[in-house]
């Protein structure tokens, strides 16, 4: 008998997920040869990767562990001021809206999955820190540990979590660490030009006209938020459909292999000699 197989570690599972996201299901040999995952999956065979991915897919569909999952609380983004909002750029509004939609959709995708995901925590941390040159792994981990209850091995798992988000184009890796896509837009605000002293007496009149426009601006901002939220939900719904189709295709391939194995077994039981090409 061969040596007993070791239990899969959480680091190996994360490496397998990231490999499938990057290369696709069925590319087991390619995933093993990838330098990003080879150090974690060197002791596993192609069959091990295939069987483990099938078990993980079944568990993600709701047939695995029924242990309840605690969903991390996501803090809301600060409200946009109405009277002094002229210093904000349109790109900053779109960035804040995109971050909120990403956090909401990530939080919804975590319901019913096992093991728990920490994507929402990572996105919340990067959105709050907003480092233009990227946030280091240590700083991200410290922020999440202060805001949420995480397991003791969370610091070890954070690296693979970040790599997976980079592969999914949700965040980007820079020289110093990680940051949200186009995070530099949210940190840029226009510098007000110095006005001529002779025109300063006209400021009270301009402030009155701004107050009259505020209701229209608020309505436009609200409509933009709703449109962006609908687009984000539509995107993640299409991603979920693609994932379901992928799992269905894997199930069909598994059924075909089972039928082939059954046929081979029956022929061998009758004493026939099978030749495999």
UniProtKB/TrEMBL annotation:
Fetch the InterPro entries from UniProt.
Histone_H1/H5_H15 (IPR005818), Homeodomain-like_sf (IPR009057), Myb_dom (IPR017930), SANT/Myb (IPR001005), SMH1-6 (IPR044597), WH-like_DNA-bd_sf (IPR036388), WH_DNA-bd_sf (IPR036390)
Per the record, the coiled-coil ranges are: none
Gene3D superfamilies registered for this protein in UniProt: 1.10.246.220, Winged helix-like DNA-binding domain superfamily/Winged helix DNA-binding domain (1.10.10.10)
The segment(s) forming the H15 domain are: 114-182
According to the entry, every stretch annotated as the HTH myb-type domain falls at 1-61
The listed locations are: Chromosome, Telomere; Nucleus, Nucleolus
**Ranges for the Myb-like domain?**
5-57
Please give the biological process terms from Gene Ontology that the record holds.
Answer: nucleosome assembly
Q: Which GO terms of the molecular function aspect are on file?
A: double-stranded telomeric DNA binding
**Keywords, A to Z?**
Chromosome, Coiled coil, DNA-binding, Nucleus, Telomere, Transcription, Transcription regulation
The UniProt annotation puts the region (Disordered) at: 1-21, 182-210
Give the signal sequence positions: none
Note the PROSITE patterns from the entry. Answer: H15, HTH_MYB, MYB_LIKE
Primary place of residence?
nucleus
Question: Per its UniProt record, what Pfam families does this chain match?
Answer: Linker_histone, Myb_DNA-binding
An example GO CC term for this entry is: chromosome, telomeric region
- Known partners and oligomeric status: Forms a homodimer and heterodimers.
Q: What does this protein do?
A: Binds preferentially double-stranded telomeric repeats, but may also bind to the single telomeric strand.
Q: What protein does this entry describe?
A: Single myb histone 4-like
Species assigned in the record: Phoenix dactylifera
